[in-house]
Amino acid sequence: MQTADSLADKEKMLANYVPVFVMLPLDVVSVSNVLEKQEELRRQLRQLRAADVDGVMVDVWWGIVEAEGAKCYDWSAYRELFHMVEEEGLKLQAIMSFHQCGGNIGDAVDIPLPRWVRDVGESDPDIYYTNRSGTRNREYLTIGVDDQPIFDGRTAVELYSDFMKSFRANMADFLDAGIITDIEVGLGPAGELRYPSYPEAQGWVFPGIGEFQCYDKYMKEEFKEDATMAGHPEWDLPDDAGEYNDKPTKTKFFAAKNGTYLTEKGSFFLTWYSNKLLMHGDQILDAANEAFLGCKLKLAAKVSGIHWWYKDDNHAAELTAGYYNLNDRDGYRTIARMLARHDAILNFTCVEMRNSEQIRRAKSGPEELVRQCSMEGGDRSGMRKCS
Ligand SMILES: *[C@@H]1O[C@H](CO)[C@@H](O)[C@H](O)[C@H]1NC(C)=O
Ligand SMILES: *[C@@H]1O[C@H](CO)[C@@H](O)[C@H](O)[C@H]1NC(C)=O
Ligand SMILES: *[C@@H]1O[C@H](CO)[C@@H](O)[C@H](O)[C@H]1NC(C)=O
Question: What percent of the chain has pLDDT over 70?
């Protein structure tokens, strides 16, 4: 006999229904790992259910769960939350959030990386993304330490991997019951697969071109090795790409005529920089697939919608973020292929639109960008449009 619920589910499927998930507040579990204001929360969940919402999305913060020490995971508050969500008849999309919450202008909540990770950063600040003049960004660990066993013997990728395995082990009942339908794997700052090239906390404002972020000692060393292997030991990381709020034409790197980005040296660097990002996503999604092997859920990853300077030949802002996309070079196809290899949905985010005058000055192309990426993504249902 079919229950009314499963009949309703069938109808939704037949109608090519796109489920509606609502994001829970960033601090639904407090920074001290407590599920606060439970009655209010339950009331809100009931309202969502009554409004025919399918489920909720929630950030599962690394900085909260593994706060007490390496491999000391405390899932109890998240379990309480998930239990309440289940009781109210909602589903869950869980986000593995390996980045810091807050630190950008207007951020209400502050959840740094775990203390013991930041302790490593006290003696070795090169674990963080670094700009050319040496400013560190503590939002997320640099790709440079992905394979460095400097966290009490573990590499950064192993830290992410162990966290996801612990999640699976401790949430097995919610996974088996189909309550958790999606896992979005955080792959960088703001959870997005990108470099932190446009940090507001460091003074970036729209539509600045941003900066490359590969000047920590680990990435520098890797670049030297890779350039040497390619027969160019004399090549260094770019020193002509300007600063956060420059216009492309103000820099030698992005100049229209003979810009470095068009030279052999420039394209070697851009290939290297964007490949590092791809390999980063590849490794973590590999770990996610291993952790969630046998679970009936969808993996998802977020890619940032960088639309400013999209209509300029140099695509400067996309390049600094790690998307090697030019008019004659599709930088998103490789990303979409990498995600597809891991059966992960591409979830494409667009920062909120500014007024059209700004968009014109910034040679911005949000609609064109969304069109390009929706062709790559294939499955439109996983994509968010700019509005
Ligand atoms: C690096 O970051 C600092 C601090 O925000 C900023 O002042 C500087 O312009 C950035 N870039 C370079 C190349 O110095
Ligand atoms: C660009 O390079 C060409 C050949 O190297 C040179 O003739 C030309 O003057 C350069 N243009 C500019 C604007 O630097
Ligand atoms: C993709 O992102 C949007 C907006 O953040 C969200 O509503 C949607 O649930 C996400 N999908 C997945 C599978 O994470």
Answer: 89
Task: Give the domain CATH number at 267.
Answer: 3.20.20.80
Helices (H) and strands (E) in the chain, counts: 13, 8
Ligand 3 neighbourhood includes 345 CB (under 6 angstroms): yes
The angle, 0 to 180 degrees and rounded to 10, between the axes of the packed helices 264-291 and 331-341 is 20
57 lines ligand 3 (CB under 6 A): yes
Question: Is residue 106 very low, low, confident or very high in pLDDT (cuts 50, 70, 90)?
Answer: low
Nearest Cα to 276, choosing from 151, 72, 129?
129
The string of DSSP codes covering 248-299 is GGGSSTT-TTT-GGGSHHHHHHHHHHHHHHHHHHHHHHHHHHHHTTT---EE
Tell me if 216 is assigned to some domain: yes
For the full predicted model, state whether its pTM sits above 0.70: yes
Does residue 109 lie within any of the structural domains? yes
Neighbours of 102 (CB within 10 A): 17
Q: Is the CB of 132 under 6 A from ligand 1?
A: yes
Q: Which two tokens stand for residue 297?
A: 């859920």
| C-alpha of residue 371 to centroid of ligand 3, in Å | 18
The answer to whether residue 276 is domain-embedded is: yes
5 found inside a domain = no
- Grouping H, G, I as helix, E, B as strand and the rest as coil, residue 331 is helix
Give Rg (Cα) of the chain.
21
Residue 193 near residue 187 (C-beta atoms within 8 A): yes
